[in-house]
Design goal:
alpha/beta, fumarase, five-stranded mixed β-barrel, 26% helix, lyase, Fumarate hydratase subunit beta, hydro-lyase activity, Fe-S_hydro-lyase_TtdB-typ_cat
């Protein structure tokens, strides 16, 4: 089912999404990859505040290529989500409502998604140039020294994703295999 949502995302909206839904996000989302997640995690361990408020926000696991002239951002494809699995439960517990990436997640992440009524989306890997067309503004807001791995605030319009793990723990990667398994 196609759904159109605004980011940041409300608790009700996150809970209404189901594994397998095609979703188009409009609004503000944030980018963060491995190095930024590590820094945020270390900041939390030291009792420091984070550079972005997690409450109801969505983080896209992406490090863009340089923007071409006249574009807000370069190629903007997803990176492998499992590299953030160590850090994701802590951020979800702080109110993060959505994550966008590609690939499977650990059970600890799935449990944190359910516990917090959040959602894990997948963006199509290999389609970074097409995905970048949905990004109309990109601003580095933290960890600029990390280059492409800096935290960015993105303004997106109809950014296409698929719900992989919904707030009830339904996992498209598991149900799709069962649906098409030949016995």
């Amino acid at each position: 089912m196609d759904k159109y949502i605004k980011a940041p995302i409300s608790n009700e909206e996150a809970k209404s999404l189901r594994s397998g839904d095609y979703v188009y996000i409009t609004g503000k989302i944030y980018t963060a990859r491995d190095a930024a997640h590590k820094r945020m995690y270390e900041a939390l361990e030291r009792g420091e505040s984070l550079p972005i408020d997690m409450k109801n926000n969505i983080i896209y696991y992406m490090g863009p290529s340089p923007a071409r002239e006249g574009r807000a951002i370069g190629s903007a494809g997803p990176t492998t989500s499992s590299r953030m699995d160590k850090y994701a439960p802590s951020l979800l517990d702080l109110g993060l409502k959505g994550m966008i990436g590609k690939g499977k997640r650990l059970n600890t992440v799935k449990e944190a998604i359910v516990r917090n009524g959040a959602v894990y989306f997948a963006a199509v890997g290999g389609a970074g140039a097409l995905l970048s067309k949905c990004i109309i503004k990109s601003t580095v807001i933290a960890y600029e020294d990390l280059g492409t791995e800096a935290i960015r605030e993105l303004e997106v319009v109809d950014f296409p994703v698929i719900v992989v793990i919904d707030s009830e723990g339904n996992n498209l990667y598991e149900t799709a295999i069962e649906k098409y398994k030949v016995e």
